[in-house]
Design a protein that fits this description.
Length: 727
DNA sequence: TTCCCGCGGATTTTT
DNA sequence: TCCGCGGGAA
C-alpha cells in the first residue's frame, strides 16, 4: 500500500490517510488537489476496503468528474468502478427522478435552463401585470434564484417579504413561477438543489437510505458551494461524519451565483472536530509567476492564512503590454502566439488567452483568424444554444415530457404550419381552465370543437405528428429519433429548400447533434432519450473544452478555473474590465475580482503575459481605460513592461490616481452635457452614485441614478443638487 | 397569420 | 454594436 502513496508529499499523504471524520483540505493553486482526491479514493478502496459504491465524489463540472473517474481507475488498474463521481446538479437530478413520487413530482421532469427560466418568468410577469420597465425580468429572476439557493421557498418568502419595491413583486411572482414550473413538470437549476434538500428534510427515511449508501463524501471546489449545497452535505454526512472538502478561499469566484465563501472560512466552526490540512507547495508555476500572483492576492483581507511556495526555477519575468486599443491589443497577443509557436516550438494547444467578458473574444478571434492561428473558444456561443439545436431538442423533450408547455410553444409553429398566437392563446386559456397541459391540453382543445375548420385541421395534423413520434420512442435509439424528428416534421426539408449558406450551417450543426446522440448511445449503453436530454441540460461551458486539440484556447477567467497551460495571456487588464466597473461600488465584489485575477495568473506554468488597452470600444462607444489597479501590486522585479511608453512604474506610485480611481474622466453625452450613462455623480442628500439612464434633454434632462447608499432615484438635473465626479 | 421595421436594452461572470 | 421583441400593416 505504501507504494501507492509514494508520489505524494507529506501533507498530501496525510490528507489521503485521514479517512474518518470531517476533513478540510486547504489546497492552494497548483498544489495537487486533484491528485489528493484521486489518491484518497483509491486509498479508501484499496487500503481501507471501502466498497466503491459507498463513495461519493462531487465535482464542479462534468468534465472534472469524468477526468477524476479516469484517474482513479488508472491508479487502481481497473476499467470500471462503481464510485459515484458527478456534479451537485447531476447528482440531485438523479435522486429527484428516483424519489419523484414522494415529492409529487413527475419522474419525467425536464430541466429548464436560464433562457427558458426567463421566458417563463416573463409570462408570469405579464400575467400579474408587473411592469418589465420598472422591474427587469433579469433582476426578478436573479432574486428568485438567490432565494432558492438560500432555501427560501415561495411560502416562506411570502410570509417575510417586504410589502414594497422589488421584493413585493417577487413575493407575487415567485409562487406563480413555481406553480407554472410544476404544472408542466419542469424544474430549474436551483430547484434541483432546493428540492433535494426539501426531500431529505421532510423524509428522514429517504435521507437515511442515502446516508447508508454514501458513507464517504468528498467535495471538490468547496469554496464555490452555496447555502443549498452546504445543507445537502450536512444532511448527507450527519451520520457518517465522513465529509472531506477540498478548496481554496482565494479561488472563490462564483459569489454572484450564490457561492458562499463562508462555507470554507467557517468549516472549522461547523465541524469542531475537523482535521485541517494545508497544501502549500505549488508544483505548477515558475517562482516568478507564483510571487507575482501571491503579491496580488495578498491585498485581500478576509483570507485563510496560507503561503504558497515552490522549488520550481524562477523562469522568465511576466510580460506586460499596454496597447492603444483593443484591436492593437489583439494583434500584439496574436504576434506573440505566433512567435512562441514558430521560434520556441510551443504547440498551439499549450497557449491560452483569458479575458473577463465574453464580448472581448470577438476582436481576438478576428486577429487569430487573419493570422491563420488555430483556436478554440470555450463557452462563448454554446453549441446547444443554437436555434436549430434548441428547436429539435424541444421536440425531443416533448416526447419525454408531454406536459412541457414551453417546448410545445417553441415548436408548435416551427417549421411554419399556420398555427399562430390566436390558437396558442386558446390553448393556454384551456390549459389554465382545465388544468391540463401540453399535449394533453392540445387534445382537449381538439375535442372541444371550438376551433375554426382550418385551425382544427392544422392542429390535428400536428398532434398526430407528435403522437406518431412518441410511439417510436421505445423502439428507436436517440440518434434515430433525432433523424425521425428532422424528417417527419419537415425541419430538414425546409432548411434544404432554403439553400443559403446559413441554412447549410444549420444542417451541419444538426448533423453534429446526431453524432453527439450516436456517441452518447455508444458510451451510455443505450441509456435512452431522457438521460440524453438530462446530460445536455447539465452540460457546462468547460465541458466543451478539448484539451488534446492543437489550438490556442480562448476563454473567460471563470471558465479557466481548474485548468493549467504552459503559456497564459490575460487580456483587458484595465480598470472597468478587471476589476469590472460594476465591482467598484462594493468592496466584496472588488475582492472577488482580485481573486479572479489571481485564478487567471495561477493557471500559467511557464510564461504569463498581461495586456491592456488604453482605449476600448464598449457597446460601440469609445472609452478611455486606465491599466488595472491589480498591476500595481506585482513586484517590479517580476514583470517587464514592453509598452511603447512604459506605464507600470508610474502605476506603482502611491499617489497615482489611476491606481485608485476607475474611469479616466467623467464621460460626456453626445449632446455635450456632463451626465453620460456610467458617470459617477455626487448628490447633496444621497451621496455617491452612478448614472444608469438618461431621459429628455436640455431643461428636461432626467437621470436615473443608482446611489451607493440610497438605491435608485430619478432626478431632474435642473433641480437636483447634483454634480459629476471627475474620475 | 406573417412579415417587417424600429426601438430599446444589454454585456460580468454560469451549474 | 447587435439582438430581440413588440407593434402595426399587408
Amino acid at each position: 500500500m505504501d507504494d501507492l502513496l509514494q508520489p505524494l508529499n507529506p501533507p498530501q499523504r496525510q490528507a489521503v490517510q485521514c479517512t474518518e471524520g470531517p476533513l478540510l483540505i486547504l489546497a492552494g493553486a497548483g498544489s495537487g488537489k486533484t491528485r489528493v482526491i484521486t489518491y484518497r479514493i483509491a486509498y479508501l478502496i484499496r487500503a481501507c476496503q471501502v466498497p466503491p459504491a459507498q463513495i461519493l465524489a462531487v465535482t464542479f463540472t462534468n468534465k472534472a468528474a469524468e477526468e477524476m473517474r479516469q484517474r482513479v481507475q488508472q491508479l487502481l488498474g481497473v476499467t470500471a468502478l462503481p464510485v459515484w463521481v458527478a456534479t451537485f446538479h447531476a447528482t440531485c437530478a438523479q435522486i429527484l427522478r428516483r424519489e419523484a413520487a414522494v415529492l409529487g413530482l413527475s419522474p419525467h421532469f425536464v430541466i429548464y435552463d436560464t433562457a427558458e427560466q426567463l421566458t417563463l418568468l416573463k409570462q408570469c410577469q405579464r400575467e400579474l401585470d408587473i411592469d418589465p420597465e420598472l422591474y427587469p425580468p433579469q433582476s426578478l429572476l436573479r432574486r428568485i434564484s438567490t432565494l432558492k439557493n438560500e432555501l427560501i421557498d415561495p411560502e416562506a418568502f411570502v410570509r417575510e417579504a417586504a410589502d414594497f419595491g422589488l421584493d413585493e413583486k417577487v413575493a407575487r411572482l415567485y409562487p406563480l413561477y413555481q406553480r407554472r414550473l410544476r404544472q408542466q413538470a419542469a424544474v430549474d437549476f436551483d430547484d434541483l438543489l432546493m428540492l433535494t434538500v426539501a426531500l431529505w428534510q421532510r423524509h428522514p427515511e429517504v435521507l437515511a437510505r442515502y446516508q447508508q449508501r454514501w458513507r464517504y463524501v468528498m467535495v471538490d471546489e468547496y469554496q464555490d458551494t452555496n447555502v443549498a449545497q452546504y445543507h445537502l452535505l450536512r444532511l448527507l454526512t450527519a451520520a457518517s461524519r465522513n465529509l472531506c472538502v477540498v478548496g481554496d478561499d482565494d479561488q472563490s469566484v462564483y459569489r454572484f451565483r450564490g457561492a458562499n465563501v463562508r462555507n470554507i472560512l467557517e468549516f472549522e466552526r461547523d465541524f469542531p472536530d475537523a482535521t485541517v490540512i494545508k497544501l502549500e507547495q505549488n508544483y505548477r508555476s515558475t517562482a516568478t509567476i507564483l510571487e507575482a500572483a501571491n503579491a496580488v492576492i495578498a491585498k485581500n483581507p478576509h483570507r485563510k492564512a496560507k503561503t504558497l511556495w515552490t522549488t520550481n526555477p524562477r523562469g522568465e519575468p511576466l510580460g506586460y503590454f499596454c496597447a492603444q486599443d483593443e484591436v492593437h491589443e489583439a494583434e500584439v497577443i496574436c504576434q506573440n502566439l505566433v512567435g512562441l509557436h514558430h521560434r520556441e516550438g510551443l504547440p498551439w494547444g499549450a497557449m491560452a488567452v483569458f479575458y473577463r467578458t465574453n464580448a472581448q473574444s470577438r476582436v481576438l478571434e478576428d486577429s487569430l483568424r487573419r493570422a491563420g492561428v488555430p483556436y478554440q473558444i470555450v463557452g462563448a456561443l454554446r453549441f446547444y444554444d443554437r436555434q436549430e439545436i434548441r428547436d429539435v431538442l424541444a421536440y425531443l423533450r416533448l416526447l419525454v415530457n408531454p406536459q412541457d408547455m414551453l417546448s410545445l410553444r417553441r415548436i408548435i409553429n416551427v417549421p411554419r404550419r399556420g398555427i399562430g398566437p390566436t390558437t396558442w392563446g386558446r390553448l393556454e386559456a384551456l390549459a389554465e381552465a382545465q388544468q391540463r397541459f401540453g399535449l394533453d391540453a392540445l387534445e382537449a382543445l381538439l375535442a372541444s370543437g371550438t376551433l375554426g375548420k382550418a385551425a382544427q385541421e392544422k392542429l390535428r395534423a400536428f398532434a398526430e405528428l407528435l403522437r406518431g413520434l412518441q410511439a417510436e420512442v421505445p423502439y428507436l435509439g436517440v440518434a434515430d429519433l433525432v433523424r425521425e424528428v428532422l424528417a417527419r416534421t419537415g425541419y430538414a426539408a425546409q432548411l434544404e429548400a432554403e439553400g443559403t449558406a446559413e441554412a447549410q450551417a444549420r444542417l451541419d450543426n444538426l448533423g453534429e447533434l446526431i453524432s453527439a446522440a450516436d456517441e452518447f448511445e455508444r458510451r451510455s449503453g443505450g441509456a435512452g432519450l431522457q438521460a440524453f436530454l438530462e446530460q445536455l441540460a447539465l452540460l457546462s461551458d468547460q465541458d466543451s473544452f478539448d484539451a488534446s486539440g492543437g489550438a490556442v484556447v480562448l476563454m473567460t477567467l471563470h471558465a479557466a478555473k481548474g485548468l493549467e497551460f504552459p503559456v497564459v495571456f490575460i487580456a483587458g487588464m484595465e480598470n472597468g474590465l478587471l476589476p469590472h466597473s460594476r465591482a467598484f461600488d462594493d468592496p466584496a465584489e472588488l475582492e472577488e475580482e482580485r481573486r479572479l485575477c489571481y485564478v487567471g495568473m495561477t493557471r500559467a506554468q511557464q510564461r504569463l503575459f498581461l495586456t491592456s488597452a488604453a482605449r476600448r470600444r464598449v457597446y460601440g462607444v469609445q472609452q478611455q481605460h486606465t491599466p488595472s489597479l491589480f498591476l500595481a501590486d506585482i513586484p517590479a522585479a517580476c514583470v517587464q513592461d514592453y509598452s511603447p511608453q512604459p506605464v507600470l512604474a508610474q502605476l506603482r506610485q502611491p499617489w497615482s490616481a489611476a491606481a485608485h480611481f476607475p474611469p479616466a474622466a467623467a464621460p460626456a453625452a453626445p449632446d455635450g452635457s456632463p451626465y453620460a450613462v456610467g458617470t459617477r455623480v455626487w448628490h447633496a442628500h444621497f451621496g455617491r452614485g452612478v448614472v444608469q439612464k438618461r431621459e429628455g434633454e436640455g431643461e428636461d434632462l432626467k437621470l436615473t441614478v443608482r446611489f451607493d447608499e440610497h438605491g435608485v432615484k430619478k432626478l431632474l438635473v435642473r433641480f437636483a443638487p447634483l454634480q459629476p465626479l471627475p474620475s
